[in-house]
Amino acid sequence: MADENTLPVPPNSRAEARPTPPSGRRPGRGTRRLVRVAWVSFFIGVGLFLAYPLLVKSNFLFLFGKSPGLDELENPKVEQPSEVYTADGVLLGRYFRENRSPVPLSQMSPWLTKALIATEDARFYEHSGIDAPSLVSTIYYGLKGDKRGGSTISQQLAKNLYKTRRSENRGGLSHVPGVGVVVAKTKEWMTAVELERRYTKEEILRMYLNTVEYGSNAFGIKVAAKTFFSTSPDSLSPEQAATLIGVLNNPTAFNPRFHPVAATKRRNVVLQRLGQAGYLKPAEVAALQAKPIVLDYQVEKHVDGPDTYFRGAISQAANKWCDEHGYDLYRDGLRVYTTIDSRMQEHAEDAVGQRMKSLQQSFDNFWRNRRQNPWVDEEGNEIPDFILSQMRRTESYKSLAARYKGQPARLDSALNAKRPMKVFTWKKTDHDTTLVMSPLDSLAYYKHFLQAGMMTMDPFTGSIKAWVGGLDYRFFQYDHVRQGRRQAGSTFKPFVYLTALDNGYSPCDRIRDQRVTINYVENGQPMQWQPDNVTREYTGINMTLRSAMARSVNSVTAQLTEKVGWGKVADYAHKVGITSPLLPVPSIGLGSAGDVSVYEMVDAYATFLNSGFRSTPRLITRIEDRNGNVLQQFDPVQKRAISPETAWLMTYMLRGGMEEPGGTSQGLWDFQDLWHKDNQIGGKTGTTSNYSDGWYMGLTKDLVSGVWVGGEDRSIHFFRSQQGEGGRMALPIYGRYMETIYQDKKLTYDYGQFPKAPAGLKRKYVCYTEYEPRHRRAEAVDSISADNLLEQLNDKAAPAPTPD
């Protein structure tokens, strides 16, 4: 008969306490169940313990986070700066988040490895990734509340190399307090063992020293040695090596630049460990500990290298490519090769600098003699409250206004508070000086400066060879090559003549220079426009198109625009390279129908020289990985825009600025080194109303260049003075630049003539040019787009197109 204690209790019976079985009797069913549960739990626990590494490795149910795979272990990707080079092999700069440049162990001071092992992992050569005695000691002291590091060099390498504690490598358990740390440590132990299996001790030391952070954004020993001591890793002395190894314990707290006392104490600990390990004698330790830390500190920025205007364009293009192809410009150690030629870039910067320094002096004298500031209205009167209105547009003003909202007195005080400021100046070779100024003073100071932009391109490949976006990038970040857009003045006229030539006209066709009235309709309203020549005079000569373009005659250009259609002129400008919006209005030929950039203008003019093919401007030729493998080659991209015949005729027309009587480019004759070996140059000057913008576009058989000069705002300019013409402001920059290009024998550009006329050219282009009577012939000047709109036919005033 079964024991009564084993009988089941009826479901509806009242619960009663069960008597404990007498000693020596068989345990009841409940006890046996508990025993079975205990054994099952034990075996499950043992199984989970044994399976735990596999669960971690496989990221079971996404609980543990990603662990490095076999490929990552054998080919670890250390964050490495990407480098940018010019076409002639000069390093332009480096892009990085973690600034590091790996070097082999043979190029490191032996004191580095000695100090590292003595301080961080004394049994480094004895363990296989995990130092058991150290681990037990860490746990023992941790339970007593004394935290001690027990990680081996291999474990630290695993943590730094594979970022095991980054958010993207963490799983669901990482959010459980305490558990996340255990999982992370487990991954580091497992990875350390795998590293020891695949690499020698020396390779692990090399990777470690090239991977860790040394403070001041220096990652890797090469950058650390340069940052703190301006030396190479193989030249580090024992005390310098000890300083850098000491920093590893806490790169912020022991940074010798910012915490010299703490850094010295930590360095002395490392020196003591070197002595204990037998690498230094006690007397040597004492002598080195007595030395102060002597730094030669030079921290590198996230983008290292000279400040240039084109670097932003390079970064934009390279980052776009990286996003599309799964790379990171700041991490993957890419090598980006650009089209910029460092020698041509230097010549361009020198030409801009020389001319702008001289021009600024003239500009300052001009307004000093008038006893007023250069921001003026149409009548030459100084614009009241100009600086304050400009200040209100700045981010600094918006920040101050938000801080002192409702407190105008405090806002005014902040705007007028003076303090020392480093500012730009032409008076020193390094272009900087320190003045005591308020924010308003500073803005007014900078508004006095004339600005410039210049770009040179190879028309056959689209390669940009030089790019000068302003006076000095440190002080003026606005790029006047691509960001800046201004009216082009007479440099836009060639697009009118292009439209005519591509629609049957020839350079020898004639239009009379006479006062004209052009009728048109705008917004349903009849309008009239009377364009003026700059001299307000009309020769009455029946001019050839080549002569009219060379002399930049407004009346002829306006008549030709009407004949071919102003909408068609906009279409042709866009076809050859202008990308900015253009208004299809009668004054488009005088450059007042839209704002354009130097970048666009050079692109468009290059189409003439490239037989009618438009080459997409390019800054990058190829991108390589860190091992020198070519990831992508950027070949020239070209598209037929106009016929070869029209393109050649346009280069012939542009040569007229030098060859036709009264041509506006003839100021280039003053640059005598341009005219050896029957050299030929084509070009076009341009000036907008009130002399707000001065342009010059220049072509040789090999290169196309564009130059713009003007104030930061259109109200800042010379007033009724031919000093502000493109032929005087911008043309000299081009002339000086091309002289130095020809003089530089390291470059391949030489004097020469443009290509001969293509075979089968049917249109007449060699024709007679009339000379004006001597008493009427004036010095060649730009024809400023001075527009004179008549009243509408219904006697309502017509809104004038912006003339400047």
Automatic annotation (TrEMBL):
It comes from the Bacteria. Its main location: membrane. Residues 1-29 are annotated as: Disordered. One of its GO terms (molecular function) is penicillin binding. Pathway: Cell wall biogenesis; peptidoglycan biosynthesis. SUPFAM superfamilies: beta-lactamase/transpeptidase-like, Lysozyme-like. Residues 91-274 form the Glycosyl transferase family domain. The chain crosses the membrane at residues 34-55. Coiled coil: none annotated. InterPro entries: Beta-lactam/transpept-like, Glyco_trans_51, Glycosyltr_51/Transpeptidase, Lysozyme-like_dom_sf, PBP_transglycosylase, PCN-bd_Tpept. GO terms for cellular component: outer membrane-bounded periplasmic space; plasma membrane. GO terms for biological process: cell wall organization; peptidoglycan biosynthetic process; proteolysis; regulation of cell shape. Keywords: Carboxypeptidase, Cell membrane, Cell shape, Cell wall biogenesis/degradation, Glycosyltransferase, Hydrolase, Membrane, Multifunctional enzyme, Peptidoglycan synthesis, Protease, Transferase, Transmembrane, Transmembrane helix. Residues 455-693 form the Penicillin-binding protein transpeptidase domain. It is found in: Cell membrane. It catalyses: [GlcNAc-(1->4)-Mur2Ac(oyl-L-Ala-gamma-D-Glu-L-Lys-D-Ala-D-Ala)](n)-di-trans,octa-cis-undecaprenyl diphosphate + beta-D-GlcNAc-(1->4)-Mur2Ac(oyl-L-Ala-gamma-D-Glu-L-Lys-D-Ala-D-Ala)-di-trans,octa-cis-undecaprenyl diphosphate = [GlcNAc-(1->4)-Mur2Ac(oyl-L-Ala-gamma-D-Glu-L-Lys-D-Ala-D-Ala)](n+1)-di-trans,octa-cis-undecaprenyl diphosphate + di-trans,octa-cis-undecaprenyl diphosphate + H(+); Preferential cleavage: (Ac)2-L-Lys-D-Ala-|-D-Ala. Also transpeptidation of peptidyl-alanyl moieties that are N-acyl substituents of D-alanine. In the C-terminal section; belongs to the transpeptidase family. In the N-terminal section; belongs to the glycosyltransferase 51 family. This is Penicillin-binding protein. The lineage of its organism: Bacteria, Pseudomonadati, Bacteroidota, Cytophagia, Cytophagales.
